[in-house]
TrEMBL record:
HAMAP family: NusB. Coiled coil: none annotated. Belongs to the NusB family. InterPro entries: NusB-like_sf, NusB_fam, NusB_RsmB_TIM44. The lineage of its organism: Bacteria, Pseudomonadati, Pseudomonadota, Gammaproteobacteria, Pasteurellales. It comes from Mannheimia cairinae. Pfam families: NusB. Residues 7-131 form the NusB/RsmB/TIM44 domain. This is Transcription antitermination protein NusB. Involved in transcription antitermination. Required for transcription of ribosomal RNA (rRNA) genes. Binds specifically to the boxA antiterminator sequence of the ribosomal RNA (rrn) operons.
Length: 137
């Protein structure tokens, strides 16, 4: 099955968010290295940049809106799962043209690619609670 350019943008954004979080490098350094080192074929590049920079620019707010729905301390969440939650949280909060069901589904699908065996269930549980709290129905 062919993956959509937006899905590829989300997958790449999760990887870039993870890299930024782990390396503590600047957004510019991470983005430049990521684009130079990764296969960006089939990626919606403007959307990738929008997602990556949007998460980084709003990370404190995103973490704040996610916090009430987490069942454990933030530091105990796998960094990949945390990156997926941050990306999906950003989309739910700021990307009003993307239906919330699409955001949740994309978060689940990205978790199936990068997360541990059951991480997609964890992501689904958090996003299912967050969406209504943000007025998405």
């Amino acid at each position: 099955m062919k993956v959509s350019p937006r899905r590829r943008a989300r997958e790449c954004a999760v990887q870039a968010i993870y890299s930024w979080y782990i390396s503590q490098n600047t957004v510019e350094e991470v983005e430049l290295a990521f684009i130079a080192d990764q296969d960006m074929k089939g990626v919606d590049m403007p959307y990738f940049r929008k997602l990556f920079r949007g998460v980084v620019d709003n990370v404190e707010l995103i973490d704040e809106i996610l916090r009430p729905y987490l069942d454990r301390n933030e530091s105990d969440i796998d960094p990949i799962e945390r990156s997926i939650l941050r990306l999906s949280g950003y989309e739910l909060k700021f990307e009003h043209d993307v239906p919330f069901r699409v955001v949740i589904n994309e978060g689940i699908e990205v978790a199936k690619v990068f997360g541990s065996d059951d991480s997609h269930k964890y992501i689904n549980g958090i996003l299912d609670k967050l969406a209504p709290a943000l007025g998405k129905k």
